[in-house]
Design brief:
alpha+beta; single chain; 5 helices; four-stranded antiparallel beta sheet; 2 domains; Alpha-Beta Plaits
């Protein structure tokens, strides 16, 4: 079993309400172990194995059945997240906002170039495999990129998390990892 994190797209926004306690129950019902949620925006740490695409599909299907709406799911192992967070594709200054946008699959060269080409004086996009590093010189609400710009990667094919939250999530997953494996 591997420590994994599932990131759920667009939950607890508008009428797309997902209880974190019920979410954990659904994950346990799917056979995953040591399930815990992190903040109320659809982040689940769990022990599980299998191909990433299969995990994403089974979690998404179970959540659709439970809640009645599509819940696109993005899975990364804790090991992958550590590498993502350690990546420093640009300098982040005081006042900047830094997101990582998770993709369902890596982009082809043309789509990568087109997405990175959306960079501007405020927003910088750098694609690394199935992840996009996105720096904004200011608040995310001031981004010049619009929802329609992200359709270049596919409809409902991405979800973003703030790098600060990802670091806190990794700290929780790391502490949990020590407790699970070390017994202390």
């Amino acid at each position: 079993m591997t420590t994994q994190v599932a990131f759920l797209r667009a939950v607890n926004v508008g009428k797309r309400t997902v209880s974190m306690a019920r979410l954990a129950d659904v994950m346990v019902d799917l056979g995953f172990g040591d399930v815990s949620t992190f903040i109320n925006s659809g982040n689940v740490i769990f022990e599980g194995s299998g191909p990433r695409g299969t995990l994403e599909q089974s979690i998404g299907d179970a959540l659709r059945a439970e809640y009645g709406f599509e819940v696109t799911t993005f899975v990364r192992s804790v090991s992958e997240l550590k590498k993502i967070v350690a990546t420093e594709p640009f300098e982040v200054l005081d006042g900047d906002t830094y997101f990582v946008t998770f993709l369902l699959s890596a982009l082809d060269a043309g789509t990568t170039a087109a997405l990175e080409g959306l960079s501007n004086d405020f927003d910088t996009l750098v694609v690394r495999g199935r992840d996009v590093h996105w720096r904004m010189h200011g608040k995310s609400t001031d981004s010049q990129l619009k929802k329609k710009d992200w359709r270049i990667v596919g409809e409902n094919a991405s979800t973003s998390r703030n790098i600060t939250m990802l670091r806190k999530l990794l700290a929780k997953a790391g502490d949990r990892d020590i407790l699970i494996r070390g017994g202390t």
